[in-house]
Amino acid sequence: MNTITLNVANRIIESALDRGRELNLKPLSVAVLDAGGHLIAFQKQDGSSMLRFEIAFGKAYGALAVGSGSRWLNAAAAERVHFVQALSGVSGGKIVPVPGGVLIRGEAGETLGAVGISGDTSDNDEICAAHAVEQVGLAADKG
Fold this sequence. Notes:
Elements: H1 6-22, E1 29-34, E2 39-44, H2 52-66, H3 70-79, H4 81-90, E3 101-105, E4 111-118, H5 122-135, E5 139-141
Antiparallel strand pairs: 1-2, 1-4, 3-4, 3-5
Helix pairs in contact: 1-5, 2-3, 3-4
InterPro entries: GlcG_carb_metab_protein, PduO/GlcC-like, PduO/GlcC-like_sf
Protein name: Heme-binding protein
Pfam families: HbpS-like
């Protein structure tokens, strides 16, 4: 596989939402992007608050922008404030530098896309994202 199909994206979303229900998390919103940062699929659970699409998208987009899961961006935001501010500026404010954005890697380690989740704590969002990617037989890079 060298790209993420709509079918795979929807399976990732369903798996992430299932995991969130298993863990009794707050309502989740899940965005799956291709390697170029284009949205493939998005779903939000009933009761999700506003801006959850933008946050989930921004976590995934940020992971793609730096080639590492958004956990890396979270650390960079504390250590390299100017870098993350510049990244936000050049991306038009699209990047959300907190955990919950996970790169989706193929068998050879190539980047196929990313999944971003928002709704619960960033750590729980990341747990669901990584779980969902692994459930479809791909590798999750949390950063």
